[in-house]
Amino acid sequence: MENDKIKDYLLVFSGKGGVGKSTVAANLAWALADKGLNIGLLDVDIHGPNLAMMLGAQDNEVISYGEDKIMPVEIRKNLFLVSMAYFIQRTDSPIIWRGPAKMKVIEKFVKDVIWGNLDWLIIDAPPGTGDEPLSIAQLLPDAGAVIVTTPQDVCLLDSTKAINFAKELKLKIHGLIENMSGFNCPHCGKEINLFKKGGGKKIAKEYEIPFLGSIPIDQKIVLSSDNGEPLVSAGDSPAKKAFLSIADKIAAGKRV
Ligand code: ADP
Predict the structure, then answer these.
(1) Is the distance from CB of 71 to CB of 65 less than 8 angstroms?
(2) What is the pLDDT of residue 229?
(3) Residue 125 has what DSSP assignment?
(4) What CA–CA distances, in Å, run from 54 to 21, 180, 231?
(5) How many Cβ atoms sit within 10 Å of the Cβ of residue 255?
(6) Measured in angstroms, how far is the CA atom of residue 23 from the centroid of ligand 1?
(7) Ligand 1 neighbours (beta carbon < 6 A)
(8) Rounded Cα gap, residues 96 and 253, in angstroms
(9) Is 3 a residue whose pLDDT tops 80?
(10) Of 2, 83, 214, 246, which cross-links 52 as Cys (Cβ 3.0–4.6 Å)?
(11) pTM
(12) What phi and psi, each to the nearest 5 degrees, are found at residue 85?
């Protein structure tokens, strides 16, 4: 099995932390795997690798293969994961690494994991436009990018930096996702725009990149992530519909 059978790379990133980037990566990976595509998921959010927990695989282990190769964890038949979480001894200890060490480990994950045949390798990058997204973009110049934002101005400002970063590095920008976009009150049924609404669509237009869709705030997302079962894996809800519609657009390969 060689890594040259990875057909496409998708970098999920954000200008800011806590906007739901890992949640989006997990749900998109699951939804794309549901379409019968072979999906690899690489969690290089070195300082907060949450994907293993979000996919119920925190107790799994990657297996070494030969001298220096790694087998990913099989989440389901066509969904594989490698996470920094598997290389940290205690999940509550922070990692303090300098830039070059981080880049080395990212390079190893990209090159030395036996992913097999993949339609997509989805990469959950740490937030911001620092060393890690930069090294991934340099390692994989053909990577596509999805940018996750929330609608409030303090986040949008950082998201515009992320858009410019993707443009400068000439990544194929699939588009922008507005997460935490409105909340339907379960008591009165009215929509409350906790973090405002529509700002993501506005900056996507302004920066001339596709707008992929809005995902509402939904407590089911929190519970499903904490239970290791991505929201799209069961049930029905407006948030699930939003994830599936975004996955359709990405699968269709709409690019700038
Ligand atoms: P990031 O990767 O950007 O740091 P996470 O994906 O870890 O963000 O999400 C941060 C927290 O917000 C998690 O607890 C997650 O379950 C929650 N969350 C993400 N998106 C939503 C949403 N649309 N509605 C409710 N909670 C969400």
Answers:
(1) yes
(2) 97
(3) P
(4) 12, 18, 10
(5) 14
(6) 6
(7) 14, 17-23, 50, 127, 179-180, 215, 217-218, 221-222, 225
(8) 37
(9) no
(10) 83
(11) 0.94
(12) -55, -30
Q: For residue 4, what pLDDT band results from cuts at 50, 70 and 90?
A: low
* More confident: 86 or 51: 51
Measured by CA distance, the residue closest to atom 4 of ligand 1 is: 18
* Dist. CA 179 → ligand 1 center (Å): 9
Fill in the amino acid letter for 225: S
Give the per-residue pLDDT at 64: 84
Domains along the chain?
3-252 (3.40.50.300)
DSSP 31-91: HHHHTT--EEEEE--TT---HHHHTT-TT---EEETTTEEEPEEEETTEEEEEGGGG-SST
As a whole number, mean pLDDT of residues 142-149 equals: 96
Closest CA to 214 of 230, 235, 193: 193
Going by C-alpha positions, the residue among 117, 110, 104 that lies closest to residue 82 is: 110
Distances (CA, A) of 41 to 75, 206, 228, 256: 10, 31, 15, 23
* Distance of alpha carbon 166 from alpha carbon 168, whole angstroms: 6
Cβ atoms within 10 Å, residue 176: 26
